[in-house]
Structures are given as structure tokens and as C-alpha cells.
Amino acid sequence: MQIEEAITKRFPSLAPSDRASLANQIDEANTVTACHFCNSATSRHRCEKTMGEIIAQPKGKAQEVLAAVNLDIKRVLKDKQARVSWKLASVRKAFDKRVKAVLRP
Question: Model pTM greater than 0.70?
Fold first, then answer.
């Protein structure tokens, strides 16, 4: 797993159980934020950094790195939302015009 490898490289002296816990926290945060929003429209655009690069970049101890990674993950989510917002608005407009009007009694 890329996250576990990045954590091991970043924190080689951290106990294996602590590395596993940190990797799990990052994986969960990524899944709950940026990954849960993925679909065919958003997954075509790749993040400019790999998870390994995101983990390696911030300075500090494990919890500081976790906080920095969480901020970066949230930025990725906002970027994905911005990329698809026009699509959502377009679909809503078409729904309101073509479907909703027909469904009204």
C-alpha cells in the first residue's frame, strides 16, 4: 500500500503499530473526503501529487503530518467539487426543464 510505504519511509523509527495506525488514519481520511466523491467525472483528473509526496512534504511529528495531509486531502475534494459543479448545475437545469415539468400534475 502506497500510504504504508510512505509512512515507513517518513517515520522509520516509529513503532510498526504506530506506523500502521497513522497509515490507517490517513487512508480513512482520504476515503471519507476525496475518494468518496470520486466518479467517472472526477477520477479522470489526477491530483498533481501522489499520496507519498503529500505525506513526505510536511515537517513535524506524526500528528502534525496527519493534520497537514488532512488539509491537502480536503483541498483535493474542493478541487473535484469545483470541476464538476458546472456539470451538476447543467443536469439540474435540464431536469427542471425536461423532467420535473412533465412530472407535475
Answer: no
